[in-house]
Design goal:
Elements (H helix, E strand, L loop, with lengths): L1 E2 L8 E3 L2 E4 L4 E4 L3 E10 L3 E4 L5 E9 L4 E4 L4 E12 L2 E4 L3 E15 L2 E3 L2 E4 L5 E3 L2 E4 L4 E10 L2 E4 L3 E11 L2
Parallel strand pairs: 1-4, 2-5, 3-5, 4-6, 5-7, 6-8, 7-9, 8-10, 9-11, 10-12, 11-13, 11-14, 12-15, 13-16, 14-16, 15-17, 16-18
Length: about 170
Amino acid sequence: GALYPDSGTNLIDNTSTLRKTTTSSFTISVPLRTQNATVEVQAGSLSLTGAGDYRNNTTWSVASGATLSLSASTTYTFTGTHSGAIAGTFIQTNGTVQAGSGGATFNFTGNGFAWQDGTINGSANGLTNQGLVRVVGNTSRYLSGLLVNAGSLVHQQGATYFNGATLQNTN
């Protein structure tokens, strides 16, 4: 299944819990704003592909065998703290993950956040990793802005190109 925009201004504004429970695949192409909220993928796969997505202080949970993907060639803006237990796969396969004004912090445990493709743009405000970020897949990816690693940054495969980037390792 899927949620697609058709006409006009569209938005899903999540200030509570967005939960996916079925084993099928589901895509949300409508812009998704999560603020002080929870996103849970209990089974199957959930792809977030909406242009103009914005996340602030969100708890993310992906069950074993489930997948949550940032898979569109769009910009995903994160601010505040993002944390959660990732027993399955939380993966960026395209697009740009960007720290918004004030910066952002990732603190994912378990399998952590998997960066397969696309760009991580810490911007001047910085994206801080306090958990686990894994660089996966035999692909090319790009880093720009400031990425502060205060957790574990594991480069498993592929190439990462720096484009006006600073990687500050404090751990």
